[in-house]
Amino acid sequence: MSLAQLRSLSCSVLSGPTIGFRTIASILALLAFALPPALAQDAGTSSARYTVNAGDELDVFVWGEERMQRQVLVQPDGTFAFPLAGTIKASGRNVSDIAMELRERISLNYRAAPPDVTVSLRGATGMRFYVVGKVRTPGSFTSGTAPNVLQALSMAGGTAEFADVRHAVILRQTQQGQIVEPVQLQKLLKGGRSLDPGTLAKPLPTLSSGDVLVVP
């Protein structure tokens, strides 16, 4: 299902004054088909949990094995090839997970303890997320790091007229299932006087790859 269809259904189900169970269920059902499988992985809530995408460049360092140091490019199918490890799926995973699998595969070629493996992000094409509903420019966006909700909203041009910021939510697909995270956009946009004590000291909600910020 295309992004255009995602926008169309989002606009129709978000036409009411509040976002209810049917609205959430409709969008979640759509997301199951609209988002690629790689985006269904739990990416965490910070840039340290950045999920690798096709087109990203990775540095792979195998300790004590200079001949196996590589800069690899994640191919369009989300994989890359590495000596003694074969083809590794990278898309939708963080660098720690990739390093762990590399070490496990390489260890099959060692009788003694296998070398440690470090993977770092050399160049990112950007994580992809969606902002839909009553915003000025709804659609798909990319960012080199995980944006917070205000940054994501800014990239979508801000809220449109009659937006119900009190009921904005983040829709996220994880390995455990689909979750809905309420966002206090009303308080964040109005400023300090309407924020609960201690709110400013807390990190703003952060979007991960594949997340959808819904502003009804």
UniProtKB/TrEMBL annotation:
Q: Which UniProt keywords apply?
A: Signal
Q: Does the keyword Membrane apply?
A: no
- From what superkingdom does this record's organism come? Bacteria
Where does the record locate the signal sequence feature? 1-40
Pfam families linked to this entry? Poly_export (PF02563)
Q: Which InterPro entries match?
A: Poly_export (IPR049712), Poly_export_N (IPR003715)
Domain (Polysaccharide export protein N-terminal) ranges: 47-121
**Which Gene Ontology MF annotations are present?**
polysaccharide transmembrane transporter activity
**Descriptive protein name:** Polysaccharide export protein N-terminal domain-containing protein
